[in-house]
Structure formats: structure tokens, C-alpha cells
Design the sequence.
């Protein structure tokens, strides 16, 4: 059996917050040539006062995970390449400062700046009313708020596991609970794992209904990228069987060129395309985002069975407003929840039923051959 | 004069938070045979990060009081008996994470897991609109939220008083302010007192209108019990003059058997009965909840003049959703506020006017004789 | 060049919270005869747990500034004179406990107790709906809340600057960001400066649109004074070209006597007057509030070009409800936002465009001569 070290960082069950802490490869994996570290850091100032970050440095990538914001990935840095984007939200906002119901349910936008942020779990998509009774004896969720709650719930349990022998895998696990009396009891168990020296990491999530009745579940990964990968001439690489604009009124050129990205254009309304991706023989879908020179890219892949839908978001605005694209593998499209229910895309989880989704992120130095 | 020691734990007036702290009988009451302690503990992780608990151990009972959540009682443990319940809300939620207006005003349910939680003080009952102007020149409360604010306001002053001579009474006092400009100025002063070795404790509350105009006040004690006292065959013991179902449509059997509790039944809608309790000769009402074997029970009693109304809440759902009953002595029934106003049950407090309510909790080893 | 010392107290960019800290004149300006200090203090208890104050003592005035509440001025004390008021909100409320959308958008009133509080910056005035689209591709602000957000956003950067040579000016700077994705990107840079021994201080604010589209901006300084300056017989001194009651229905006497203040009168509805102030030759407007004996007063002055409008608020209620007047120099009157837009009083800031406003506060020992 491989030996591992497990360090608890945050734990409700142990009533623990480990505070500022560093784990280092030199101490834990002396036989590993690649230096690595995992640190927990507390943030200060403005609306980020009290936010915790877990910073994973595997010798190639520095990944900033945020337990306080539902285990979202703030960004990933490798040399002069940064996965992530420059949101007008400059701080990593503590949920205590959030009021999701504000701005007619668009309050979520006051904290939105992650590279990877989960939307869900009870509901996602635009604000609105939904009087559907999901469970006997419970009030309906009622006033939906943009993209749901999970990104603004702090993790209840966070731990780091280190494998002492090759490949010395580093794993950060978290548990985030979206629970209410007379409401959802959805438990997110998430793992981010990476090996020292690698430019690839994986996120594996399991969502379990801990309630006693069938529960609707919605899940979308909002993976957001700005410069340097996004630029004039950047392109999406994906095997697309069908592409549909979400809204009417996009120009013919916009529709024809949906895989292509232009320069920032102040005042450009966002565009969203729903893509039907063709999986490979192993059943995996993949999308790549490449810079204009096609010498740098990011690919994200996942089993189509887990995340059958995909939305491409383009917000190519003035850079101060955000120049960003969103790659959004999902179970549920970001339509109003009643639309998704009607379409049968909301997952129904039986009591103790689970849903798993896993994503692989990989830096690329050139276009894939094929 | 009996000598006492008073220790301030939290104080706005002294700008004090005492941090983790323990007071012990061995030091403070060496002549007392029963060991006791009072501790303050800070919680960590998830939505309970930063919550303070006061833990009173009198040698028989361990009471967890929560200053951060309006001086509610989380639970009381005595050996294998626990007063309290297993809510789907697993953490003791910091009010900073609450948004009472969410879920169409049902946001309170995201933090509801106490053994004793106060509902009020400006309003209680279901969400809704209320355009009644309580005071000249002030806007109406407007959008009512479930069971009001008091359970999600942290205490401004918390202190422990220890009596140095028999019966060595331990008293924890708190002040919770529900104050707003152009709104209520309702001050809750609460005391929980217990003697070392006793299986009985008392809560005494005084609510004072610190404003300059007459103020409506609403008050209900939501006393919630799950296993082990609640079980199939458990029963309510109370001298009931009249019982009315809150809602139409309960079955005849449900109405006839309202004092009896069955097993968990997934998807069972909650039931609420309004009981007119007959007081004893001293003017006190009492309710008891006994397990099936009738060898263990909890009784709660209070002066009827203080808390003239009573609601019995049954939520006998799947245990994962909650298997719980609520014993709810109150001034104001949990109806929509306009209904209670019309019925004359909202208390009108004159400036500096006070309302007192006191409750006695006692563990029982058998049914009362009579 | 004069030499200065700059001390960072709170900083997102440096990930810094300096904690409890004191800077003293004896160490930093040994050649200055007037002892002074600047301290940072953390508050505890109730809804003020975790709030930071910066306390400036210049040897004559003690000014309490609150970084946690958008750099508002809590109060200013000079001997037995206090600039400020006794709000029914007794604590300095941490924004984490606020829910601006509560009470039909009047939630702001649960934290309102400052001497100087900014209203704005995206919007101010009463709650209501506003479906105006300020920017292409962004949702409208929608549900306006009373007086906007800026007073409930913690400062991202706070620093103190001390001039080492006469006049030994003390300056506290702060940056408060009201930023959202698909929303405003309004940066407030504020400076409060005072000299040791002086009874005068200045606040200079610069608001910059960091977004890429034109942005509406609203700004009002709510300067609130109770006793001892406000009392029966107190009066407003101001050169008023025109005065209009905000609402219909005030008595003729109330309108005629708008510059005069009577005693507290329980249950008096607030009154608001909109004043057109005549500037002096330098283009400055000034208002003074003097006690009945006219031997103590506060004057506030500003360039009319910066703050062309003025509202006088009178809430002469029972002292427990608030006995206070508000002097409110502003860009935008506290009318519903659509009214202000129609009237052309909302400022339109171009990208990187700035708006500056500066206010001088001065204690007076007698009425000005003229």
C-alpha cells in the first residue's frame, strides 16, 4: 500500500482551522526531485478580509484554490501564462459580504472572478421565479438567483493528501454543503489532484443528495479565460456536431465565427453559444483555447456522459469591463430553471444518490495533431 | 449578601471578546461537591467559522448556548440523552452567512437547528407583505421574513455569574439588540440559570422597547426535539382545553392523535396544532414529551399569563430531512402577522415598557402522577 | 521636498491588516508641540465584531473613521462637544451583518449612525425599481436600495501619512471599491487631513470610473448632528436663494421656520428641504449649525461647483428614536433615481473620468459676522 500523509486544513468535525501553514516536498517527499509546496494563506483588506486560500505549487504550476468560496479555483500561474482572467471584481470576495438576492438576483456578479467556478447546486442560470415544488412539504426555492449558491458557501472540510512515492500525487479535498431545513441537502465532495512537475491537473467532484426525498440538482463549470490565451485571433478547438446561439439577434458573422475571438470591443454585449460536442472513442469531450500564434493553449476534457452539455460564453468587452471567454461544460444549460426542467436536463438525485463529474485541465504548447 | 463572581465574555460597552476561556468550580466554588465548568469556545470551518459557544457543564447537563445566534440553546446533553434534534443544517451558522430574504423570505431555514430558538421580536411567522405602519414617520417592516431576526443577531453583552455559596447557581446573561433607525428598538435581556448537579434549568427573558413610540412585539420559543425522546410511540403530555389544526386538510386520525407521534415517514408534510393549555393552580402551563417507554421525558413549563398561546409542530419526515417536533409556547401564534394583529395577539410595548417570559426545562425519568 | 512617513494600515495589494497599532507625535514629529496620535482599533461584541476604527487625536479633536464602513466618520469629539448623533443603532455595524435588500430595500437603516456617511455611488435615494440600462450588455441595477452600497463596503487600502515639518499635517487615505462584473466600477479615493491642534479638518474625495463604458454616479454626504449643537432654539445659518419642501403637506409654519429647530417631539415625521445655496465670491457654499446660545457651532463648506445641491433633513423625534438633523451637500438629490436622471443630476463618468468633492469641517465659537 502506498503511504500517504494527510493534513487537515479546515474541519467542522474537528473544529479546526489550521491557520497559515506550509507543507513542503523537501520534508514530505525527499525522494522527489521536483520541489513542491502546499500552503494555506489568509487574505486581508476590503471584501477579502478573512478569506482562506490554498496555494499549490507543483514546481510548474501555482494553483490558488479558495475554500471560502466553495473550493473554486482562482487562477493557475505557470511562468508568464496565467489561467484565469481580469474581472472588474478585483478582490476574492468573502461570502459574508455577498447578498445574492441584490440587483434583482444578480448579486453573484459582485464576487465573480474565478478561473473555475461551479454554478449550482440546487439551481443555476438566470434569476427568476420558480414555483415548482421539488419535495413534499417543502416550499419552492422561489426566487432563483444567478448561478445559485455553491460558489458562496465556505468549505466545511479541507485536507491535503501527499503520496510519499512516485508519482507523489498531491490531492486537495474539500466538502461543501448546500443544506437547508425544508430545502436541498446537497453535499459536494471535490478533489483537485496534480503531480509534481506536471502541467496537468484534474478536478473530480461527487455530489450526493443527503436528503430523504428526490432532489433536483444543477451543475455547470464556469471556466473563464482572459489574456494571454484569449486575444485577437485566438480560437476554440473543439469537435462540434452542432452549435446554436442562445439568443436571437446575433449577426450571421458572429454565428459563423463563433470559434474565433476578436479584440476587446467596448460595449459589446455578451454572446453565448450552446455546443453539442462530439466525444472521442473513449467518450471524452475536449475543448481547447489557443492563442493567435497557436503556440500556447489550454485544453479541458471530460466524459460526455458526465457533462453532456456545453456553453461557450464570449464577453469580449473593454478590458476594464472584462475581456473573457467562458468554457462551460455542464449538466444543465444556463437557461431559466423551468426551461431546463421542461427539457429534462435537471438531474434528479434519489436519497443518497450521487452524481460524479471530472475535468482534466492541461497546458498545451501547440495545436493537437488531427 | 451572597458573594458572586461575574465574568464578562463579550461586551460592546467594554469592547471585549474574552476569547477561549474556562471557569471551573474547583477554583471558584471549592466548597461545592459537584464539579462544574463554563467555557467559551470559538467554532471553525464552513458556515460556522467565527461562531462563539458558551458551554455550561453543571456535572449533569452540558448546555451549549450560542451568543452569535441570539443566545439560542443549541442542545443539552445528559449522558446518552440529548435535548435537541438532527437538522439537515449541520453547522451552527454564523449570521454573516445568512440572507433572511432569500427563498422568498424563508432564508431563516438555512440556519435552523437549535434546541431552543426565539422567533421575533419585531415579527414572526411566515414571510409575506405587511404594510401596517407601526410608528409615525417610519416605513412599515414591509417584507416579513420567516420568524424574524432575533435568532440571527449576535449578543452585544454576555456574562457569567457564579454564586459562591449554596446552591452555587450559575447564570449566563446576554443582551441582544434588534434595533434600527426608523425601525424597532427592542432589547432582549436573557438569563439562563442552573445549579450544579441539577437536571433543571430556567430561561428568563425581558424584552424592552427602547424606542420613543409604541412598538409591536412578537415572541415565540421554538423548542425542538428529535430522538431519543421523539420516537414511534412518543407522546405529548399536556392538559389541553382545546386543540385546533392550523391548516385544513389534516386527516381525522391525525387530528384525533395529535398528542401521539409515529415513526419517520418520508415526504410527510408538517402539521401544526394550536393548543389552548389549561394552567395549574399556580397559573403555570406545562407540556411534556415522553419516549415510548415513558421512562424518559422533557417537561417545559411557564406562566400562562406570560405565554398564553401554544403551537405544536410535527415534522415527522425522513430522518435525513428532519424527524422533529416543536413545542412552541408563545405570545403570538405563527400565523401571518396581519392575522395576529387582527386577533389582538401582537403585544404593544410602550416606550420603556417591558415584557417578561420565563421557561423551566426539566428532565424526567417517568410520567408525572395525576 | 517635505519629508513624510507613510504607514499602511489595511491593504489588499500587500495582503496586510496591521492590527492594533499606534502612531504617536512624540516619536514621529518630536518638533511638534501639540501631542497627537493615530491608532487603529478593532471592535468587539454584537454586530460590531471585527470592525476596524482609525482614531485620530490631533490634540483638540478625536476623529473616529471607519474603514470597515466605507471610510465613514463615526464621530468627532472635542471636550464636551461631539459631532455626531445618538442613533438607535448603537453599534458600529459590520457590513457582514447587513442585508441592504431587507425591509423593502430600507436595510441600510440597520447600520446608520455615522456623523458623515456617503450615499451612493451607483445610486442613492429611496428604494425602488429602476430598469434603466446604464451600459450596453449589462443588466440594470434593478432593485435600488436606500442610499446605495458605498457605506457598507470595507476599504481596500488604508494608510496614514504624517508630515514631519510644520504644519505636521496628518492624512488618512482610503480606497473603497464599488465594483461588479456587469455593474459599476466606481473607485472612491478619500483623504481626511488635519493639523495638530486645529479644530478644522477636510475630506477630499475622488471618484473614478474604472470601467470601459460611461457610468452613472450619485453622491451625497449625509452629515448628521444631534446634541449638543442640535437643541431647541438651534438654527441653521446659510445663504439660501431658494428653499423647497421635498414633500407636500408640511405646515406653513414648518416651511417658514425651516432654519429653526425645536425640541424633540415624539412621533414627528421627518422633514426634508431642498436648498439652493448661494456661494461666496470664491464659489464656496457654507452651512452652519449653531446651538441656541449661538456660542458653539459647526460649519461645513465646499465648492458649489462640486456639490451643487443641498438637502436639509430634520428628524426631531423622541431622543430614543433620534433627534438629529442632516446637512446634505450633494451632486444628486435624495429623490428616486429615475427622477434624478430625468432632472439631469446624475453624473455621467466617462471611462477613467473622475469626480472630485471636498468638504471643510470647522468648529465655531460664535456666529459669523455679516
Sequence:
Amino acid at each position: 500500500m502506498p503511504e500517504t500523509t494527510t493534513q487537515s486544513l479546515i474541519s467542522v468535525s474537528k473544529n479546526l482551522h489550521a491557520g497559515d501553514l506550509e507543507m513542503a516536498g523537501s520534508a514530505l517527499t525527499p525522494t522527489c526531485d521536483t520541489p513542491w509546496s502546499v500552503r494555506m494563506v489568509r487574505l486581508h483588506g476590503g471584501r477579502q478580509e478573512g478569506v482562506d486560500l490554498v496555494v499549490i505549487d507543483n514546481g510548474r504550476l501555482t494553483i490558488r484554490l479558495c475554500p471560502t468560496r466553495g473550493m473554486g479555483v482562482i487562477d493557475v500561474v505557470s511562468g508568464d501564462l496565467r489561467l484565469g482572467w481580469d474581472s472588474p471584481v478585483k478582490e476574492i470576495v468573502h461570502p459574508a459580504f455577498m447578498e445574492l438576492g441584490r440587483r434583482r438576483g444578480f448579486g453573484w456578479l459582485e464576487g465573480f472572478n474565478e478561473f473555475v467556478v461551479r454554478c449550482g447546486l440546487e439551481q443555476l442560470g438566470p434569476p427568476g421565479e420558480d414555483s415548482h415544488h421539488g419535495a413534499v412539504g417543502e416550499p419552492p426555492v422561489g426566487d432563483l438567483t444567478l448561478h445559485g449558491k455553491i460558489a458562496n458557501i465556505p468549505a466545511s472540510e479541507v485536507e491535503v493528501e501527499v503520496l510519499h512515492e512516485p508519482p507523489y500525487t498531491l490531492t486537495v479535498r474539500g466538502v461543501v454543503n448546500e443544506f437547508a431545513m425544508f430545502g436541498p441537502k446537497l453535499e459536494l465532495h471535490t478533489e483537485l489532484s496534480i503531480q509534481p512537475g506536471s502541467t496537468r491537473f484534474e478536478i473530480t467532484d461527487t455530489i450526493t443528495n443527503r436528503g430523504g426525498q428526490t432532489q433536483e440538482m444543477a451543475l455547470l463549470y464556469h471556466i473563464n479565460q482572459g489574456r494571454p490565451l484569449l486575444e485577437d485571433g485566438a480560437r476554440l478547438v473543439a469537435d462540434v456536431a452542432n452549435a446554436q446561439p442562445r439568443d436571437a439577434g446575433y449577426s450571421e458573422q458572429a454565428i459563423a465565427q463563433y470559434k474565433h475571438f476578436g479584440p476587446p470591443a467596448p460595449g459589446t454585449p455578451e454572446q453565448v453559444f450552446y455546443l453539442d460536442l462530439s466525444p472521442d472513442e473513449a467518450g471524452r469531450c475536449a475543448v481547447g483555447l489557443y492563442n493567435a500564434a497557436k503556440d500556447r493553449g489550454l485544453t479541458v476534457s471530460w466524459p460526455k456522459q458526465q457533462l453532456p452539455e456545453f456553453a461557450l460564453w464570449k464577453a469580449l468587452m473593454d478590458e476594464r469591463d472584462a475581456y473573457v471567454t467562458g468554457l462551460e461544460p455542464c449538466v444543465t444549460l444556463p437557461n431559466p430553471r423551468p426551461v431546463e426542467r421542461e427539457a429534462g436536463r435537471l438531474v434528479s438525485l434519489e436519497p443518497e444518490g450521487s452524481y460524479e463529474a471530472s475535468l482534466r485541465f492541461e497546458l498545451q504548447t501547440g495545436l493537437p495533431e488531427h
About this structure: The helical segments of chain B are 25-28, 102-105, 252-256, 337-342.
